[in-house]
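INTERNAL AUDIT FORM
Audit reference: QA-55
Scope: verify that the stored structure record matches its stored sequence.
Auditor: D.O.
Record contents follow.
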Amino acid sequence: MPRRCSVDQCHILKNKIKCTLFKAPKEVNILTAWNEAVSKANGKSSIAHYVCQNHFSAADLISVYNNYPGDLNVC
């Protein structure tokens, strides 16, 4: 079964648009906030498994990384 956005009316699967899906966080406080946001968007109680990039503001997404694996100091 393909991964899909947990927001019911999301158009990425229907229109076959490629975008990044973010897996729900494991931290309980953040996961609760995700589930509340998805439930509000869906108009019913929902559990967020994945949410696509279209449901985040540009400021919420990290597009430039400052630390790369080669930057690690090994003792």
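Auditor finding: record pair retrieved intact. The CA atoms of residues 8 and 43 lie 9 Å apart.
Action required: none
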